[in-house]
Amino acid sequence: VHGTASADAAVAYIESRLVELGFAPRRQPFAVPGWWANGAATVAVLAPERRRLDAHTMLLSPGTPAGGEIHGRVGDVGRLGLWGGQHAWRKFAVIRDESRPSAFLCGRSNGPAIPQLLPPGSADIPHVVVGTDDTRRIEGWLAAGETVEVTVSSPAAVGPSIEAHNVHAVILGRGAGRVVVVAHYDSVWSSPGAYDNASGVAVVLETAARLAAAPLDATVDVLLTGGEELGLLGATAFVDERAAAGGLDAISYVLNVEGMGRGSLLDVWAGPENFEWTVAQAIRALPGARELTLRSTFPPPPGSDHAPFYDAGIPVAMVTFDDQEVLHSPRDLPNDEVMANMRLGADMIEHLLRKIDTAVSGW
Ligand SMILES: [Zn+2]
Description:
Layout: H1 5-20, E1 26-36, E2 42-47, E3 51-53, E4 55-57, E5 70-82, E6 87-95, E7 103-107, E8 127-130, H2 132-143, E9 149-153, E10 157-171, E11 178-184, H3 194-213, E12 219-225, H4 233-244, E13 253-260, E14 265-271, H5 273-284, E15 293-297, H6 307-311, E16 316-321, H7 336-355
Helix pairs in contact: 3-7
Bound molecules: zinc ion (ZN).
The site of zinc ion has 6 residues, from helix 3 and strand 13.
C-alpha cells in the first residue's frame, strides 16, 4: 500500500533482485491519491432486526465525517459498475435527507465484503461494501416492504497525493523486437496480497533471471508497477512516458502477470483477436499446462495493467489464476497451491516469450 514502509520495502526488494541479476533498474515516479482506509468500516442494521454486517470502505472513498456515524434508511438504487462494467454490484443508498444520499452500500456479487476501486465520478459520498449474503438479506427486506435502518461509519481519510514508483529494467536482446513483461507489486490495505500480486511479481523476477541466463532476440522491458489497485496508475505513467518519447511503436506485445492463485482455471485476457489465438495456441503447446482449463477472453477486460497498453494499440495478454475467494482479503496468504502455480506461471511466460514472434501486428 503506497505511503507505507511495506511499499518502500517492496520497491527496494525488486530493485535489489534485478541488480543481483546484473540489470540496472530505474525508478519511475508518479503520483497516487493520498488515501487512507484507517481500518475497517462498520455497518450496523437497527431494523428490521439488529445485526452487524461485515464491511469495508471502497478504495478512494471518503470516510464518514470525523468520528461520525451516518444513520439513515436504506433505499434501492440499482447497480454499481466497477472496472468499466467488468463487475456489476448492487447499490443501496443510506438516506437521511431526501435531497442527497448520505452514503452508499455497495453489494458485492460474488463473495465476502472486499474493497474495490470506485469508478470516476463517485468522489464525495462514502461508499462501503458488504458481502453477497448481506446483499441478499437487504434485497429480501426491501422486497418484503420492510423499513431497513442502518448506521454506517468509515474511518477513511483523503489527503494530498503521494509519490509512488514503478521499477523498470531493460534486458537487451541479441536482435530486433521489444516486449514488455509487467506485474503490479501494490496491494490493497485489507490484504497481505500474496497471490494478488506478490505471486505475479515473483513470476516476472524469475522470468528476468531466466532471460539473464539465456537472452531472447527481443529486448524485454521488465516492469513492476505500483498504483494498479488505484486505477492502473503506474502502467498508465509508463505508457505516457513511452508515448512522449516516441517509443510505443517499438513494443511488439505486452504480457501482464496477474495473481497466480489457487486452482487449475487459467484466465487469459488478450487482444487483438489474432494475438489472443496465438497466445492460446502457445499455452496449449506447453506440456505443464495440459492439466489446466484455459479460459480465454477477448476483448481483454480493462481491469489490470495491460489496459493502457491495449488502448494504445499494442497487442496484450494477461494471465491469472483468479481466486475470488481470497482476493483483496486478509486470507490472501502464501500457500503451496500458489507456489505451484507461480512455477507454472514462470514456465508459461518464458515459453510465450520464446515462442511468440515479435513481428505480431498491433491493431
Ligand atoms: Zn492484481
